[in-house]
Hints:
This protein has helices at about 5-55, 60-65, 75-100, 110-135, 140-155, 165-195, 205-240, 245-260, 265-280, 285-320, 330-355, 355-410, 425-435. It has one domain (about 5-435). Helix 5 packs antiparallel against helix 6, helix 7 crosses helix 12 and helix 10 crosses helix 13. The longest helix has about 55 residues, at about 355-410. It is about 85% helix and about 0% strand.
Amino acid sequence: MSLKKLLTQxxxxxxxxxxSVLLVNVFLSRxxxxxxxxxxxxxxxxxxxxxxxxxxSAESGIIYFAxxxxxxxxxxxxxxxxxxxIAGIIMIGFVYLYFLFDATADKTLLPWYCMYxxxxxxxxxxxxxxxxxxxxxxNYFLPNFLLGIVNxxxxxxxxxxxxxxxxxxxxxxxxxxxxxxxxxxLSVFLSYIIQYKKEGSLSFPxxxxxxxxxxxxxxALGANAVFFLVYKIDYLFVNYSPxxxxxxxxxxxxxxxxxxxxxxxxQIIASVVFPRTASGVDQKALNNAILTIARLFxxxxxFVFIVIALFGQQLFTAIFGETxxxxxxxxxxxxxxxxxxxxxxxxxAFFAGKGRVKTNLYAAIIGLVVMITGDFILVPRYGIxxxxxxxxxxxxxxxxxxxxxxxxxxxxxxxxxFKWKKADYSxxxxxxxxxxxx
Length: 438
């Protein structure tokens, strides 16, 4: 299948999934309001970091080895299904230890948090693994459709009220929220087994291939874990800043989540770039596509910046509720950083497909040093404004290192990422034509 057709399919169906994620975010934010949303998403961030570590970033190894036909997919999906369940069990142990050693923790919440941790770890790991295998088969429809449907069903259960009425009702909604991760992962796993049942019975990779998979994945884990901290550790600084309230944290996390949403298209494209690079197909076209897309992104983010500068305050409070009234300025500050991340997403996928995951690791370490240093000095005094500024500086440092390596290996000047060209619109037009045909 051609690169442009793959991009089109990925854009359509991953956009459907990300739209469902946005729906969940909007309805949940209006229901729990800024303070409640901030607390819930902070817990999710902690679970997410645990998932990043416990999953061993095996999804990166899966794409690399499956795209190159080095390990059979039926063996990969067996291994990952078993490990997803084990990761969920380990997370229950971590939650139990936390409640055991923290004397201030409410022990009545232990069963609930154990369940939340298992649902998130097991479900999110299974989702990431199975979606990765689907993508190596150039199937972007089924996993994203199923995950989107699960999210839409959850939205139907969220009360229409803008404020909760009882603790029992809130706990019910939060339980359903974490359940979506588990049932989403389970649906994608079972659908793959049914869809590709003819490719072979479930079995495990041989010892040699398993060792190679782990070596690649653990290196990728280092890069992913460090970059996770780059992208999320500012939440902790904001949470413990003496000048920030719970509502400030909710506003800032919402800014960050909107930044993630703005990375939807880069992530969609990266889901094509990684397997395509690993397979060794269309390398010249892929290089040119990365540069062209980066230049188009620069124009898109400039447009977004102008819109938020003019109408951001009204848009944010209208969509998320009146308690999200401190988002506009941090959002404007962080947009240049999000643009940097959009380019980084493409380059990271490219280097991962080339087996150069250490480049991603070193870039993430540079970004993390900038993030921790800046947040430690500035956030306790200047709050979420400083957090947004430091994040942008960190993301720019991160992508700067990756761009330097891209230039070093492929003799492409850094200005090629930003110099607007008339020919770029022909590339965009051709993608739109594919979308129309689809």
